[in-house]
Design a protein that fits this description.
By secondary structure, this protein is an alpha+beta fold. The protein contains 10 helices and 19 strands.
């Protein structure tokens, strides 16, 4: 635990906020680089900012090279469950030839769009948290609840070296977390999306074995033949889910669904054959073949029952499957005000400033699931409206007005959450 306070003073002006955002975007924290990347540089940058506004910081490394920064401000009633504001500082790789500008230069266009990897996912939120707290403290606000800003690595590749380990530590348990915010998505309309859960992940490899022989013969029950039958069963289910998603499932009152409401299933790998890319023996029937699938399942679907479908699709002799990743527990955050009173505080704060919310299930995965799994209600919320969803895409951007507006939204939400004594 560091008690030292930086001599640096953070200015809360809009220009300083935008400039700080750009500086942070220029730190190339690509998740695939792992501990070889500038994780410590990112943590030092964030630590300097948070200490400058009165937070006390600790850096936890459950896995070497993957530092988690926890910046804490203790409230006047520290016995109350605290609020955790989580964000990750890693970003996905780029195909630099597909970008119109250097993805780590944080170029601002004439219309105010800031183009860089991580603008939406999710370095914006890291800086918005800090500047919202800076402005509240600068105005003289003090809070009943303690607040912890946690900045994590490794989220883009599963969070196993970051949040997944961090929530199991004694340091984390001492935070006494009672409510959390984590990342959300942009909304192309004037509304703001808030996520109260996310879909389970199943990454599965289906393997098939069978007899070999010359490609000119009718050999029965080959590995490829059986694999393709299984693949077609998977894809038939995919087609059914697509119809439901588009509102064409045959129901009289069918309506288009959100992505988080349905199961997506995509064939992402096919492997088989004798030889290699340098020269395939197309006249030899292979003894083995395999296919990989990325499956995302909404909380409304029973996971055990879904695996029974997989068993049925792969029941032929010589076929097996294994999970490379499998979600077994997937809790959601209650939006019942009687059950989750701080949700009520959050929603009322948004209503007060005319922020219209659209509650949804997050279509992919976030660190929020790790918080929910240890019993902390968590909402995924990134205040970006009137903005196309660009995370992981080429030329990812966020407009400066949307970025600055998000700071103001957080100011209202955090002021009310941290001054509330509801349990």
């Amino acid at each position: 635990m560091s008690e030292a306070k930086s001599e640096f003073k953070l200015q809360s002006s809009d220009e300083k906020a935008v400039d700080t955002f750009k500086q942070f975007l220029r730190i190339r924290t690509i998740s695939n680089d792992g501990p070889k990347g500038p994780n410590y540089e990112a943590v030092d940058f964030l630590r300097k900012l948070t200490e400058a506004i009165g937070f006390t910081c600790q850096v936890v490394e459950v896995v070497k090279g993957y530092p988690v920064l926890c910046a804490s401000l203790i409230g006047s009633q520290p016995e109350l469950p605290s609020v955790i504001l989580n964000s990750h500082y890693d970003v996905v790789p780029v195909m630099i030839e597909k970008w119109n500008h250097d993805p780590f230069a944080a170029v601002e266009l004439e219309n105010g769009d800031i183009v860089a990897r991580g603008t939406q996912d999710m370095k914006c939120v890291c800086i918005q948290y800090i500047f919202a707290m800076c402005r509240l403290l600068e105005s003289g606000k003090r809070f009943k609840r303690s607040v912890h800003l946690t900045f994590t690595p490794d989220e883009e590749v599963g969070g196993h070296n970051g949040m997944a380990n961090w929530v199991q530590t004694e340091e984390f348990k001492k935070l006494n977390g009672g409510f959390a915010l984590d990342e959300g998505l942009a909304n192309p309309t004037n509304k703001y999306t808030v996520f109260y859960g996310e879909r389970s992940i199943m990454w599965i490899v289906v393997k098939s074995t069978g007899p070999t022989g010359h490609g000119s013969r009718f050999i029965k029950q080959t590995a490829m033949e059986k694999l393709m039958r299984a693949v077609n069963r998977f894809l038939e289910f995919r087609a059914e889910q697509l119809k439901i998603f588009e509102g064409h499932d045959g129901c009289k009152h069918a309506v288009e669904k959100k992505l988080g409401d349905v199961t997506t299933l995509n064939l992402t790998m096919l492997n088989g054959g004798v030889g290699s890319a340098a020269g395939w023996n197309l006249n030899v029937i292979p003894m083995e073949a395999e296919a990989g699938f990325d499956i995302r399942i909404p909380p409304s679907v029973n996971l055990e029952e879904f695996e029974e479908k997989i068993k049925e699709w792969t029941k032929e002799d010589g076929m097996t499957y294994e999970f490379l990743h499998k979600t077994t527990v997937n809790p959601v955050t209650s939006l019942d005000r009687n059950v989750n009173k701080l949700w009520g505080v959050f929603a009322d704060a948004c209503a007060k400033i005319k922020v219209e919310l659209e509650p949804e299930i997050f279509p992919a995965g976030t660190d929020g699931r790790q918080l929910r799994c240890v019993g902390i209600p968590c909402l995924g919320f990134s205040p970006m409206n009137n903005t196309p969803i660009m995370l992981h895409e080429h030329n990812e951007f966020l407009n400066r007005k949307v970025f600055l507006s998000g700071i103001k939204v957080y100011e209202t939400i955090l002021a009310d959450l941290l001054d509330s004594d509801v349990i």
